[in-house]
Amino acid sequence: MTDLKKQKFTLFFSNVESYTSTSKEGGLISQYNLNGIHELLGFITADATIGDVVYLGVVFDEVFVSCDILAIIVPIKAMLESLVEVHELVDDIKVHFFECTSYEDAYKTALSMQEEKELCYDKK
Hints:
The protein has helices at 16-20, 37-47, 70-86, 103-113; strands at 8-14, 30-35, 54-59, 62-66, 92-100. By secondary structure, the protein is an alpha+beta fold.
């Protein structure tokens, strides 16, 4: 069984400052290689903007959107903990954490991340 304290994570991170300083098509996204769940969550909470932003978190194609950072971090942590109990995780888990200026922008970003999936759009 994998230990989340030793798990490798790749974090794709964009704060609201880099989001608004670049084009609306996509802000500057930084990539960080982190070791362990505590380093991952510590980085996110230390570097996140507190205030009028909407957070978008994505892990294993599960999307979380909220203006409350805990509403993103807590379910991601719980999902990772439950998965590690069931089976081995991959060598490197990719986590996306973006700050957006509105729910509209957060959902547009989430939609663009899922476009290759069959369920992305209505089949009408």
